[in-house]
Design a protein that fits this description.
The chain is of the alpha+beta class. The protein is built from two helices and five strands; from the N terminus they run βααββββ.
């Protein structure tokens, strides 16, 4: 049975920022990167729990997982009850700052802020 995959606004922002960074340096690579990223995200429709736990899991009371893609990580959570995989953010592996950890993980999408930053971090 398939899972529904939802990419949050926070994740879209991270994807856009990474795309723009790559595009400024290698426009053709950026297009291939973006296409490959969304193909990888689509694999979450099947067995999203196959992926390893994300290191951000220790900061939040959430069952966060990660899916590597080239030099980036796709961080998501799985809701077994609704069979939904929520892509929370996409970030470069070397980026260890917590600025991309969504402050409202777990709230319904309509209640989330559009900014991934939080003053508590």
């Amino acid at each position: 049975m398939k899972y529904r995959v939802i990419v949050t606004p926070e994740a879209q922002t991270g994807i856009r920022e990474s795309f723009e960074y790559i595009h400024a340096r290698a426009p053709l690579n950026a297009a291939r990167w973006l296409q490959g990223l969304y193909s990888k995200i689509d694999t979450l429709e099947r067995l999203p729990e196959r992926c390893a736990y994300a290191r951000e899991r220790r900061y939040l009371d959430q069952d966060l997982r990660q899916l590597p893609f080239k030099s980036h990580r796709i961080v998501f959570k799985v809701d077994k009850k609704s069979r939904t995989a929520w892509v929370l953010f996409v970030r470069h592996r070397a980026d260890r700052s917590r600025k991309h950890v969504p402050s409202r993980v777990g709230r319904p999408l309509a209640q989330r802020h559009s900014c991934a930053c939080s003053s508590q971090w």
